[in-house]
């Protein structure tokens, strides 16, 4: 089934309850160049991508999951 | 159930199972509409809900297809085109003036003089053959809902039902949607019986749900499907989709093909079989194939005299309706007299949904992939699709049956002649022809004419890239706007606990994000002067309020915000900036340290949800043990401000509210008028002030007590209007009004609120990176010689270098003041600028009480 997001707290819920938080990126950048890349450049992967989702209309927890951006399937 | 409808103020009886079309057709009505551009007569044609010929107004709702609208007792049905009506139409003259409206005339005519277009447009709009929208403001809000299934089957014919059964048998949760009642579009009685058997079998499956009266208007990534049903929009999230939308009988293009009395075969047969009424008394059926004999039998049973002719239609003859047809047969060209010409030229798959879903797990079943297949073949195809092995489409893309004249697109009045002219003008591909002529863009969305357009481009010798079908896009069936806005246009109004108090005090309530807030209580000046000279109240319950607690509360705040946190003792408060990862100011607020390592954080009213997500995200990313409790809705807050603010609170409280007990900025837990409050001494308006945060349930009581006790100082509440000037006098910014999305603290003069020496905080690396760049733009205080306007451009020597973001006239200062963006000019920030005819001088902020003497009093 398409786009059910596995929330570790609430179980599988429709993606419409979530806010997309973008690609998972490192927290710290080493130097100005790396910082620029971290803030402004995205991998924009065609395929599996680690990303952040926020269960805004649910338990309000953040989760990291891997979604294939081509097939929209979520690894569990 | 039998009864009668009101057709143009005439009582028209209907039988059990009648549609509006069949009931009215029985009374002898043959002209249903006048066409869009040339006001040609149009009659019943497809009878399957595809073409636009039978659009009528039913009970005030325009654009309803009579052929799929059930006749209901008392329904008011009106034809809606033609002046004054479709039977007699003065605008029929336009059919003799095609030269006046050549193809693409919107791009060619009425260009000069320019003023002519305004009149011409109004005339053209009035003259077009379309219905009128009701203007009485009726609007029935519809709901939207989302549902999930493993398999969605679109179409409830034999293929669709077989697919649903097959999918359900392998254990998949199946949803079947059909735009009408199951089997509504079928004509052959044997097929009808099979549908009943299959639907009984489908209903017996525990995991099949059937939605009748739901049209699928589009397929999207997911795959998800949008269905429009009687109660609004249904969004279906499906594992896979099976499209079993069947085929539409092929449209014929020849001179006279749009005359009333020309019918598509299945439609004519359906009229005869289901409603017992023949399309005419003398029918000529042109075509070949197994269905044709069935059609002939059906029409004869309904009382028509029928001739079967094999061959190519050369033309349909007649002026107001068909009176004869000329056919190129094996024995040469022959003419036949008739009052109904029934076309059985083949089938054109209704495949728009399939084509828009390329790359998605979407397959077809039945006529849509095997057009013209037998019912048995359709059923087998459905079973294969249901089991997960759908048939690949097998049919030519173009439709090779077109005479050199006739209407290709009957919805938009585009004939072969128009396509020829456009081609000669250089519009030489099917996509471009579509855009230029609007062919395929009418209510049928190319279901009838798409393949003819592709054929035309192909026959002109266009290269493969310029031929073929045009891109299929939603909606494939016409939804109503009220369906589309269902669930989308839901306006949220948030009210504070004091809403009724504001309204009864005569406040003008303003929309501020989702909140309703008092703008002014009648006179902005009264509230403003009460703050500056006496004492005033403002409802600030809309502030975002968070309790941050837990083992790592201090660590979270220290690492997320650029503010100095470690030395903030319980009872103290500090201005707080929130930066995003790019180092740009995202929000601001006030941080109060509570005992036991907890914090109370207030931030901008509109940003509560974003701030909560932000705090939770960082807590999770940094793997900290923190509780974030959003208390925005739980707590109310009233700001008591003015030189007598402390006097007022002292009169209502036994607690120590002295300067020593509550620092500035600082806070203390006190009881005011019997209500437990957290009093935060903070100075947004520049006078002694205390925000009283308290349980929302006590807001009214507290507000009333404060107003009552405030009589002694002639207290007045103030709203957003007064606040705007009060904070401006102090030079405080409004986020979003005074700031831009790429403002780092330096540009706003807020570098003092950043503790750069901290080892890490969100945005620190970006701030350091940007610190190496020269400052190009700053938000500065401005003073004007006259009252300026917000948004006015600021210029130096005629060159625009900034704009005014906030401004006002300060009564207590007697100055015209403002804030605005100023760009660096040749390495320096200008001191004097022009704001239109006004002169602006850069001035230091705060404008009012720059030393903060009053604030700390």
Task: Give an account of the 3D structure.
The complex is a heterodimer of chains A (76) and B (857). With 76 residues, chain A is mostly beta strands. Chain A has one domain: Folate-binding fold, CATH 3.30.2270. Helix content of chain A is 12%, strand content 38%. Chain A has one helix at residues 32-40; strands at residues 4-7, 11-14, 19-23, 48-54, 62-68, 74-75. In chain A, strand 5 (62-68) and strand 6 (74-75) form a beta hairpin. The longest helix of chain A has 9 residues, at 32-40. The radius of gyration of chain A is 14 Å and the shape is globular. Chain B has 857 residues and is α+β, with helices and mostly antiparallel strands. Chain B has 7 domains: 3-110, 2Fe-2S iron-sulphur cluster binding domain, sarcosine oxidase, alpha subunit, N-terminal domain (Ubiquitin-like (UB roll)), CATH 3.10.20; 143-248 and 349-386, FAD/NAD(P)-binding domain (3-Layer(bba) Sandwich); 253-344, FAD/NAD(P)-binding domain (3-Layer(bba) Sandwich), CATH 3.50.50; 407-468; 491-542 and 634-718, Gyrase A, domain 2 (2-Layer Sandwich); 544-631, Alpha-Beta Plaits (2-Layer Sandwich); 728-759 and 772-842, Aminomethyltransferase beta-barrel domains (Elongation Factor Tu (Ef-tu), domain 3), CATH 2.40.30. Chain B contains 21 helices and 44 strands. In chain B, the strands form 11 sheets. In chain B, strands 8, 9, 10, 11, 12, 13 and 23 form a 7-stranded mixed beta sheet that branches. Chain B has a 6-stranded mixed beta sheet with strand order 35-36-37-34-28-38. In chain B, strands 40-41-42-39-44-43 form a 6-stranded antiparallel beta sheet. In chain B, a hairpin with a 3-residue loop joins strand 11 and strand 12. The mean pLDDT of chain B is 92. The chains are: A mainly beta (76), B alpha+beta (857).
